[in-house]
# Entry
Amino acid sequence: MTEGGPGWARVVALTIVASTLSVVPATLLVFLPVGLLLVALPPRRPALMLMGAVLVGVVLAQGPDDPMFDFARGWSLVAGAWLVIAAVLVERPGYTARGLFAVFAASATAAVVYAVRPGGMTGLDAMVRERVERTDSATLALSERWGVGRNMAEALRQRADVTTLLQPALLVLATLAALAVAWWAYRRLAAREAAPLEGVAQFRFPDALIWLLIAGIVLLILPIGAVASRTGANLVAVMGLLYALRGAAVLLFLHGMPSVLGWLLILLIGVLLLPLVLVPTMVVGLSDTWLDIRRRRPIENAGP
# Structure
């Protein structure tokens, strides 16, 4: 299977990732940034600007009276605004560098807001945990019918603990995927670009981001305090997965894109053996930081 065409399969996969990882509705993470992009960036066609303004207006005006939904709207607005700024400031072509700029800038903005807000992250953590436990209640009720309620309750409690601890990392990763869909929609509508997103095998990001991984490891190891440890854990989670994706991209570049059946097999292996898959692919991604394997490959194969 090639990577040509507009990339519908990639968009569907990114939407599933955004919907799965985040407690923030993926519709907000996609539609609000799309509206901002259509209004703020060229070519500023009246019909597209009107469409964008309507999207922004509907998203901001509609929705339940719910603090979690208010957070989702605010986060989506901040992330979309930073993507607009990244589109202007970041000179690298394509989406990845701009998307990373946007999500890290949005994360820094949110960190400042919650640092000065009464209650800080405590209230947000409580909302996230309540939302996760509410989602898990149906699973727990079904497990009790099957007589495995006690074991399932403990597993779900641990999942809620991990989700609450790592919800900033999960939100960053989900937002990165959702903003990619928003960027794809904007470039398809406004610029009529055939393939707005980079190919899977070409996924890479600035090598300087290795320092975020190093900072995360340092914060996680040193006994500085709970806030520093949690910050380190979330940095390691985000950068570890990004390096694993970079390693997977290198492997796809070297061995070629698989068929549909191959993708299904990769997905099955990834789900069943996730820890065993993440570590080697992350090592490959880290190695690519220094070796730049994909750039060296054509030179080595060029012959005399």
